Task: structure prediction
Amino acid sequence: MSESSENISPSEKTVLITDGYISASDGHLTLEELDSVLKNIAAGSMEKFSKLKTIGSGGTATIISAYETALGREVAIKVLRTEYRKNSKYLERFIREARATAQIEHPNIVPIHEIGVLDSAGIFFTMKRVNGETLKDIIEKIYLGNQRYIGEYPQRRLLEIFSSACQGVAFAHSRGIIHRDLKPENIMVGDYGEVLVLDWGLVKHIKEIESESGTQNPENIQLDLKKDGTKTVDGAISGTPLFMSPEQAIGDTKSIDQKTDIYSLGTILYSILTLCGAPFDDTLDPAEILNRVEKGDFVRPKKRAPKVKISRELEAICLKAMSTSKHDRYPDVKSMIADIRNYQYGFTVSACATPQWAKFWKLMLRHPVISSVVAVAVILSLGYSGANLIFMHARFTTARDAAMKYIESGNSAYKKSLYMHKELDAMENERIVSTRTTQEKALEEKLHDQEAEMENNYSTALMLYFSVPPSYEKNESVENGFKCIMKNRIDYSLMTGNYLQARKWLNLLKIWFGKRYQDIKDQKLLNELSTVEKMIMGETTLVIKTIPYSAELGLYRLKEDPQSLLRPVFENKLGKSPLTGLRMIYGSYLIKVTCAGIPEFIYPVFIRRGIKSQVIEIEIPQKTPAGTVYVPAGDFLSGGVNSRGVRLRSIYLPGFFIKKNEVTFSEYLEFWKSIKSPADKLNFSGKIRLDENDRCFLDAWDNNGNLMYNLKLDRPVTGITLDAAKAYCRWLSAKTDLDIRLPSAEEWEKAARGVDGREYVWGNYYRDNLAYTIENEGARKKYGLWAPPGSFPEDVSIYGVNDMEGNVREFTTTRFLDSPYFFQIKGASSSTTKRFLFCAYSSDTAVVPTDIGFRYVIPYKK
Result:
């Protein structure tokens, strides 16, 4: 059994949701099944994250803020606390939370990025990092009299936040998923107005609940907390006592369903209305809190907070949701949202009986231009059913007109955001360094404000559309307004490169249309949606030409193996060039080029999203110089967060050949022995330090060119200067009649990295022992200070260049932008740490033992 489960008690059983359903016939996982799940979760490494900072800690888990270097984004990492990492109950709950949350993609539910296992911290998952504060914190600051919060969060705004959270819960319910721990602390309000429901750790699928036994004996229920009803508990009683439903309070697991969450939403609304926290006294013993929850023993909102203006309708909505009897609660969350919306826009609410005169008065308030005399006459003549139709139509027109105003404001912010984003892109393209200018930072801040304005207006308009009576949901004006919002959202996401968000908006559009999506007759709309699908998938049409010869082309797709190493997987035989109309989707590929009488070579292709068509011209060299590999001309992604201050950008480089292995002592000494000038012989000799205690440099070889200090001829040469490496290239050029020189930093990076912007030659994740760095103790014992070239089969670039990651660092002819007196040294070595392994990284300082060598390039000439 794996280490992850070695301390699991044999008597324990767990439940795991897989794709929304129970994974075992009885709804539980055996120890072997849990162990299998843990083994199938990919191993991870903290090396892919930087800027780690703990930002929160709960009863069982810790949240860490981090920067994911490979994708250039901020994330939140959730890990179990040390004492729970080998406990089956908490492992199961943790996996269940990650999987369930990943299945419910919705704007009001925090998205999950990945799940994995870390050697140092056990199982983890990453999610979107949201800067903001919880609804609990906001309510507390209003209660304490913070004037900024009182002004920024009036009751109307708090109700909008509540409605947004309800939308997320309603969507989860539509997927059969129950949260079971809803409370103000689990609702996050972002800095730009976004509202997210957090912490799905107690999530249950409705099918799972149906398979469980019924009520627990209260005498057998043991609480895991003492004198604190604000904390989440998980057991026979699961949830937070102050905000849980009566059925949860008595451990009646069989009765838990969507209405359980509706009760908790009612308690959140109670907190919003009263600004006094939970409906129950948090100073009481947890057992007493549960007793009061079961009996519904709490003070009504208006009585609890007599100085706060709480309308009769809002109190009725709150009390209906918090009914002790499930039968008396709202049938679903959408009904509760509808009542909140009805209250906000002056309509009657189902939770509160409204006399006909009051309904009429509300109508007059909404439509003051209508003569009261005419309205009364119409109502009297049409009777109750006719009046009801008038109310329904008035409700629709009010929501529609209000929504259109919000759409107009959203469209204005959308256009401004587009303009600002293009302006920001232009500024970024003008610089190479990653540091943003003051002007860029100011513009970026304004852009964020406009984006928030756009989203807030569009979200409010959608909520208004969701509130229209069912008979008006398919009204043309409603559908047109909805399509306008979603089209702009999708277009903006595509334009800004946020394809994941574009996919979510497209899915929301499909959910809105439902079955009608298949029957859309608007050909223009269908064409636009088809184009969007292709852009999200990254579908591109390729034209491939080979110059000057025709060649056989084979296509391979690069995919991650179980160790997260990128491996070529054969796709198909493309045939002879030229090729047209070749459809490919987003991803990294290899084209194997085979031409009679010419060495076979690789042409990497990275298909990016947002490009409809692309022409690739592959130059075929007639001859490849001995000991080199061919790096064809073309664009590649250079720089990035792990470089020395250079932003990620696309660069075009002409084709070149690069030496497959680093220059060895044997090869270099042939040059050195040919030198006639005593001064040059001295200047170009090797000087090394093998130990930090060495006070001076030692001669690497004697006057006859015999290596000293147990150095070996088949190892990479070190201890020479940049000028000596250049002199070697000039000597070899004269000897071979080829244009041989040291590589630029960009040429070296492309030869190591390929074209897709990967972090390491083997992919995007650090792996131990794949290259020779100071951490690789096994390699040091086997090879000594340096290894023979080609000793590490995974330290081979996509073009077939050996040891681009480790063994020795290598000279280039490119100076640093911020330090023009220093030349960039690329790669890591047996004397440096894994920090130097990033293909984009450059160093400039010598270390001990001496570790800088070189290889050369030969420009391709047509």
Q: What stands out?
A: DSSP finds 23 helices and 31 strands in the chain.
